[in-house]
Amino acid sequence: MNIHAFTFQDTALHALGSGALFWPEQRLLVVSDLHLGKSERMARRSRQLLPPYEVVDTLTRLEDVLIHTDAKTVVCLGDSFDDLEAGRSLHEDHVLWLTRLMAGREWVWIEGNHDPGPLDYGGTHLEQLKRGPLVFRHIAQPHTTAEVSGHYHPKVSMQLRGRTVTRPSFLVDADRLILPAFGTYTGGLRSDAGVLGALMGRDAYAIVTGPLPCAVPMPR
Amino acid sequence: MTQLPTHISDWFAAKGWQVHPHQQAMLDAALAPSTLLIAPTGGGKTMAGFLPTLADLHGNPKPGLHTLYVSPLKALAADIKRNLRAPVDEIGLDIRIEDRTGDTTYTQKRRQRVDPPHILLTTPESLALLLTYEDAPRIFDGVQRIIVDEIHALAESKRGDQLMLALSRLQSLAPDLRRVGLSATVEDPQAIANFLACHPQPTQIIHADPGPDPDIAMLETEEPPPWSGAGGKYAIPAVLEQVRQHQTTLIFHNTRAQAEIFFHNLWLANDDQLPIGIHHGALAKEQRLKVEQAMVDNTLKAIVCTGSLDLGIDWGDVDLVIQIGAPKNVKRLVQRIGRANHRYNAPSKALLVPANRFEIVECKAALDAVKAYDLDGEPRGDGPRDVLCQHILNCAASGPFDAGHLYGEVTTAGPYASLTPEKFDKCLEFCATGGYALRAYDRYQRLLQKDGKWQLRDPRAAQQIRMNLGTIIDTETLKVRLKARKGPGSGGTPLGEIEEGFAATLSQGDTFLIGGQIVKYEGLNEMTVQVTRSPSDRPRIATFMGTKFATSTQLSDRILRILQQDTWPDLPGHTAEWLQLQRERSQLPEPGRLLIESFPRDGRANTVIYGFAGRNAMQTLGLLMTQRMEEQGLDPLGFLATDYATLIWGLEPLKDPEPLFDLHNLREGLETWLAGNAVMKRTFRNSAITGGLIDKMTRGAKKSGRQATFSSDILYDTLRKYDPDHLMLDITREEAMKGLIDFGRVEEMIARTQGRIDLVQLDRVTPLAAPLFLEVGRVPVKGLAEERLLAEEAARLMDDAALPESVAKPKRWSVPY
Asked: Considering only A191-205, B99-113, B220-234, B580-594, which range has the smallest mean pLDDT?
């Protein structure tokens, strides 16, 4: 599996090419912004009938990562469901699938702005989780340290000899780690957006996802 | 012969004018269900269209809509309103003439629906929009005539398909409706006639006197054209001289980027400060209007332009058209030449400027074709189904409909006359449920069947459908504005638009050309690119996705025939010598055979395929060939395509070309390659928006929810993976094949040459191949290349940045290559 190994707050971590984060010492896997049920919510809210396959695709990729990492603990970093109604409307096959993935693992649902309340799918529902030196929450807070969050769906655009490559990316500085979105139907916010520039310190760098994840200074 | 009513004939007499024969013919055909007038620019074409209406509306006409006029351009609608008002007042007709376009005010539009004018001038989109209102039957009750202007241009795009569907609806509301099409000279009038007809009724075709033959030649320059390139910079002194000698000159270019560069260089050489402007589709509306007004006021000597001036208001004083670069298509050339029509019945004057040595042959072929009235064009395929899907939704917005009845109506439209019920049902199914193999949206169906009629589940959807109406999809562009002097905000002068992809390559301080000005990139502010004026020697050229025209089949055939001549007395000496040398060293391409040259150069093995299938098909051929060569272990490194040849370079020489051209294998390769292709994704986006799968993005929505929105590429990939037979993928494939991929011409090339392949192996580059090495637009063969580039760049950046120790150094990747 393609990984980028790095150290954050003296903790050895792996950024996976898929956009998930793995903490080998704890066998802990973090995925952010799954946005399950997005197509259902789009149909309900905006009447657009998008291809209803994003749950299948997201779960397939999640299962893949779980198999490869053999994670003991899974932290879903918020916005796991596109909204609570979308969460409740998952097809029963998908609910079974999710249950199967959760079986035998410690599973933590961090609440996000899209899914503020708990659903009946088991696991633990938390506002934030502290584990070792790290704290896991959905949206980055100002003036904090050792924080792992999601929410912004960061992506990075780079010029490679005349070719523009844009990929979801991790953003890392001394105090903060922001994960890219893992869900299939998710867009991204470019790292040069003002809000990300304000959050991330001068030394920030980005880990670009893909078959061979690699680090670059965060484009501002 | 129908007599002109006296009030109109008196007016003609008072003006000292005579009714043209084609105007009389239109009058005679006033009661025909459908009439097509083919006439050159000028010559009273519009008047011919309106004469029967004016004859009808004398005395005290009853209120209500009598005649609709539809043109592809808003400006044309406004212009016709002015031009029609004068004769109507002079004749003394008591009628109301109004226009209705995207620019018409809300109050005006509301009033028009309550109390329609006698003559309404509009665009295809505004007409389609009117038809989505519940009161459409009342608005259009009793309409007698519809005039479709510039129908030849509309027939070339989905706008025309949409208009013909709108007409089928209109005809149901107003059964007496008679149709009139006004067209420039086209190669196949019958095709346009079928397009316009209310099937199964026929269309009557009327030909106006085409006028005198144009006065057309190649521009003679002191310096011969260069070996490669497309800019025509070498000809600038000669072009300026022509501008000086004529009243007003239009200087046409094939692409916006070329127009920008040429205009820039023209100004650098414009020592006399001749007033010259630039006009193209990516310039801000304000800038374009300024140029158009200056043209009307006769204050410009010349305009550097693109297809944006192919249509539009006639400027009386244009007396010369210059075409820079080979025209690629004879029909468009003839239509462009027609823009130089300053005096009625005087020949239009035009000059062709070949941009490179090979284009001399192409320009010669084009001149011959114009003289022989041998126009070209691709046959019009069946109407695209994404447009049909939109039409079904539009109909639902206006009220409940019966599926069988709508199918009957749709098949009266020319582009959909042969649509099968199965295909129609699939489109209806898509509109109703999304048409997925997985039935996920039973609760949220868009259309429901009630009492045998289809209707919107949620009536609020009607507004959404209206917002999405239209078939022109914006490319993802950003507006460019001069930075306001004071304070932030995006208040500066608008200059135009650039593509998002190009904007992403800019960093602060970069300069680029737009509207002939060199500007410096200052930053991005709320989706607007902020720039300042800045002198620079080497500005970059904004790239535009716009169409790159491919040389037409007919023109390519003519070029091949010219190459067969024993000698070339009609061509300049340098060009004739060049061709002669090619004949001695290798051979010249022939119509019924496929010439392939293979020779080493710079330590690489080169293969040149002289397919003459047009740029897009030759590009597709390059992609497919390199794929096959990779399988054969020839290690291709990259390729380059022009209208006539594809050059492939690699590590191993090609020895046995025949298996490469197996049609079955090529088709299979095409399927695989299409999967991840950018062209397909772009085509999918357009079809998905047109068909109503995804909403059009308004600029406001774009500004706010950036991170919430995701690209349509994701939808394309997901559909391919989970629902490969979905209607939208089917439509995408169909659209892409006839457009940018142009596989049809690859097949045609293979059919034409039928395995008669001449592989010529040489020890060095040939005269005909040499210019290819100077062309731009090289395509590297992909693979792991992107990952390797990314890893290299990351390593370089991290080294440069020398980030502190606490941040881990990236692992260096070495990719076996």
From this structure: B220-234
**Would you call A51 an interface residue with chain B, using a CB distance cutoff of 8 Å?**
yes
Instruction: Report pLDDT for B474.
Output: 67
The pLDDT of residue B485: 66
Angle formed by the axes of helices B385-398 and B727-738, to 10°? 130
Q: Which of B443, B501, B524 sits opposite A164 (nearest CB)?
A: B501
Give A58 to chain B, closest Cα distance, Å: 11
DSSP class of residue B813 equals P
CB B196 within 8 A of CB B152: no
Residues 2-21 of A with CB under 8 A from B: 4-7
| CA distance linking residue B511 with residue B264, whole number of Å | 13
Average pLDDT of the segment spanning B1-14: 86
Q: Do B695 and A46 touch (CB under 8 A)?
A: yes
Range 139-158 of A in CB contact (< 8 A) with B:
152-153, 157-158
Q: Of residues B774 and B642, which shows the higher confidence score? A: B642
pLDDT for res B112: 93
Q: Which of A52, A174, A210 is opposite residue B440, by nearest beta carbon?
A: A52
CA-closest candidate to residue B491, choices B536, B537, B525, B540: B525
**Is there a contact between B225 and B359 (Cβ–Cβ < 8 Å)?**
yes
Interface contact A25, partner B, CB < 8 A: no
**DSSP SS3 for B276:** strand
Instruction: Return the C-alpha torsion angle A83, A85, A86, A91, nearest 10.
Output: 150
- Nearest by CB to B718, from A53, A164, A187: name it: A53
Q: What is the pTM of this model?
A: 0.86
Alpha-carbon span B694 to B530, nearest angstrom = 30
Q: By CB neighbour count within 10 A (0-12 exposed, 13-18 middle, 19+ buried), where does B607 fall? A: buried
pLDDT over 70 at B782, yes or no: no
Rounded CA-CA distance B644/B553 in Å is 11
pLDDT (tens digit per residue) in B178-228: 999 999 888 899 999 999 999 999 999 999 988 888 899 999 888 888 887
Contact A184 B718 (CB under 8 A): yes
Asked if pLDDT for residue B816 goes beyond 50, the answer is no
Task: Flag if A217 and B797 touch (Cβ within 8 Å).
Answer: yes
As a whole number, the mean pLDDT across chain A is 93
Closest residue on chain B to A189 (Cα):
B707
Of A43, A157, A217, the CB nearest to B801: A217
Interface mutation vs chain A, best among B457, B807, B812, most A CBs within 10 Å: B807
Cβ–Cβ gap A187/B461 under 8 Å: no
Mean of all residue pLDDT scores within chain B: 86
Residues in chain B, overall count: 817
pLDDT category of residue B522 using cuts at 50, 70 and 90: confident
Structure tokens, B10: 């008196």
Q: How much is the pLDDT for B543?
A: 63
A212·B787 Cβ contact <8 A = yes
Q: Do A215 and B794 touch (CB under 8 A)?
A: yes
Helix/strand/coil for B347: coil
Q: At which residue do the structure tokens 């994960």 appear?
A: A179
Contacts (Cβ under 8 Å, ≥6 apart) of B388: B165, B410, B416, B419, B424, B427
Q: How far apart are CA B752 and CA B129, in angstroms?
A: 46
Q: Give the C-alpha separation, B294 to B296, whole Å.
A: 5
At B545, list the tokens. Answer: 């996705």
The mean-pLDDT minimum among A178-182, B458-462, B669-673, B804-808 falls in: B804-808
Given a cut of 80, whether residue B538 has pLDDT beyond it is no
Q: Which of B501, B718, B810 lies at the smallest CB-CB distance from A54?
A: B718
Q: What is the pLDDT of residue B170?
A: 97
CA B241 to chain centre: 31
